[in-house]
Amino acid sequence: MKPADFRYARPATLDEALTLMAGEGEIAALAGGQSLMPMMNFRIAQPEVLVDLNAVADLAGVTEMDGTVRIGAMTRYSDLARHDVLARLPLVARALPHVAHPSIRNRGTLGGSLALADPAAELPAVALALGAKVHLASTHGTRSVAADDFFQGLYETDRAEDELVTAIDLPAATAQETYGFHEVARRHGDYAMAGVALTRRDDGLRIAFFSVSDRPVRAKAAETVLRDDPTKLDLAIEALDEIDFTGDLNGGPDMKRHLAGVVLRRAWAEVLA
Amino acid sequence: MTTHDITITINGEAITATVPARRNLVDFIRQEAGLTGSHVGCEHGVCGACTVEVNGTPVRGCLMLAVQADGAHVTTVEGLADTGRGHRLRAAFQTHNALQCGFCTPGMLASALEYVEGGGTADRTAIREHISGNYCRCTGYQAIVDAIVEVIETGEGA
Ligand SMILES: Cc1cc2nc3c(=O)[nH]c(=O)nc-3n(C[C@H](O)[C@H](O)[C@H](O)COP(=O)(O)OP(=O)(O)OC[C@H]3O[C@@H](n4cnc5c(N)ncnc54)[C@H](O)[C@@H]3O)c2cc1C
Ligand code: FES
Ligand code: FES
User: Can you tell me the distance from the alpha carbon of B9 to that of B14, in angstroms, rounded to the nearest whole number?
Assistant: First the structure.
């Protein structure tokens, strides 16, 4: 199907984009379009105004300072995959090839993935596992939100309607850091049936699941178990009962519960290896 | 209806038209430029039949608006035929029966070309992962992978 009619604007600066986002009516930012355009073609989304962010230079680019990597919202998956900084973001490097297919990664953006907050998407869970910070801006000013507080439900985030995600901060990996990632999908590149991303650093262990609930979720009880004793994997898997499992087209909550244990077992083996 | 005056250079030829904001790139290519080699399948990014190169990068033609490609250079399967780029790949598709109905082929070639020109290896799993976003309902993929492997192993470019 074709999208319904809309007005289209292509601002060149962040200020212009924010002014447009603050306008009247139903307004949507257009990043890579790899989720928004399908939704518009299906007419699940019918925005009156599209604010195309592709010409806003302030939203692109990667910088690194004091152990923090800042990635502009409009950074495309494939640009990130080719970037030197990936050497300091091994978990991101591990997850990226699982996000969709090459020609979709050529357009899709990190900011778009976070703003959409698809519960089955890889990078929101990676952001959670890394303890990322999401930067937001509107005509009222700027603020930043911890990934832990950003994802609030099915396609729901802390972002206000007139706000844009401008960048995301990720901690560069330290020498002691270990990480794990595993997902099960029907076919490479498809959305996962269940997946997990985790990091173990001096200051703790963070385990984030995707495609098991209505949003990317931390498994805090399991984190405590494995932090205290890395051999207590079975106990940690039992502790996953804390998660509010929800089903999707792939299966019901029981299957998600089962797969969560499977992916944690495989990802944890990677951490210990 | 909101319209825009845009110019897109398709296979080296500048095409200027007034289009509705909602016109997608692959429809522009087919309707305004009259080039019907790029196909329209699912219109939601899943099948890959609409894959074309925009400024040298393969993208989904159904998920990009024509107005977003204003000023860009687009290459379609017709453009590849004109310039001879990818001719070894096309010949290998033919020898290996890597197409039957041919609906997926223009998009499949765009993805395969990105892989071969990007220095991809003859590893069958890696090839399958790279073309995972292109559906083929006829061949069962085996012959497509065979064709790509042959082009890489005989090592004279795409
Ligand atoms: C066939 C197919 C398979 C896919 N498989 C996967 C997969 O396995 N895993 C996965 O994670 N994703 C997958 N995707 C989705 C893909 O990763 C998208 O690129 C991503 O979800 C959205 O990024 P985008 O830049 O394309 O955003 P868009 O589609 O442009 O936007 C998505 C939403 O976010 C809003 N938005 C975008 N950027 C901003 C911003 N900076 N500030 C505020 N709001 C913003 C938009 O208004 C819209 O509501 C798939 C897509 C397709 C078509
Ligand atoms: S028509 Fe574009 S991916 Fe199917
Ligand atoms: S040859 Fe018919 S779909 Fe591929």
Answer: 4
Rounded Cα gap, residues B74 and B103, in angstroms:
20
Please choose, from the candidates B57, B4, B1, B60, the residue with its C-alpha nearest in 3D space to the C-alpha of residue B29: B60
Residue of A39, A42, A74, A101 to mutate when probing chain B, most B C-beta within 10 A: A101
- Whether B31 has its CB under 8 Å from any CB of chain A: the answer is no
CA separation for the pair A249, B22 (Å, rounded) = 30
Distance from CA of A219 to the nearest CA of B (A): 30
- Name the pairing type of β-strands A49-52 and A7-9: parallel
Torsion angles phi and psi, residue A35, rounded to 5: -120, -40
Structure tokens at A40: 């518009």
Q: How many angstroms is it from A33 CA to the middle of ligand 1? A: 6
**Cross-sheet strand order for the sheet of A217-218:** A178-184, A194-201, A204-210, A217-218
Supply B1's token pair. 């209806």
In chain B the domains, ranked by start, together with CATH numbers, are 3-80 (3.10.20.30), 87-154 (1.10.150.120)
DSSP letter for A57, please. Answer: G
Dump pLDDT digits (tens) for A105-154: 999 999 999 999 999 999 999 999 999 999 999 999 999 999 999 999 99
CA of A102 to the centre of ligand 2 (A): 14
Neighbours of B96 (CB within 10 A): 19
Residue B148's pLDDT is 98
The amino acid that residue A189 corresponds to is G
Among candidates B28, B125, B39, which has minimal Cα distance to B72?
B28
Asked if the Cβ–Cβ distance from A5 to B2 is below 8 Å, we say: yes
- Whether the CB-CB separation of A67 and A173 falls below 8 Å is answered with no
Contact B113, B89 (CB under 8 A): yes
**Element holding A17 (H helix, E strand):** helix A14-21
> Cα separation of B77 and B86, whole Å?
10
Residues 6+ apart with CB under 8 A from A76: A32, A105, A106, A107, A108, A109, A110
Residue A26: count other Cβ atoms within 10 Å of its Cβ.
Answer: 11
pTM: 0.97
Decide if A103 and B60 are in contact by the 8 Å CB cutoff. Answer: yes
Task: Please state the rounded mean pLDDT for residues B57-72.
Answer: 98
B58 touches chain A (CB under 8 A): yes
Residue B63 to residue A33, Cβ atoms within 8 A: yes
Give the mean pLDDT of A237-261.
96
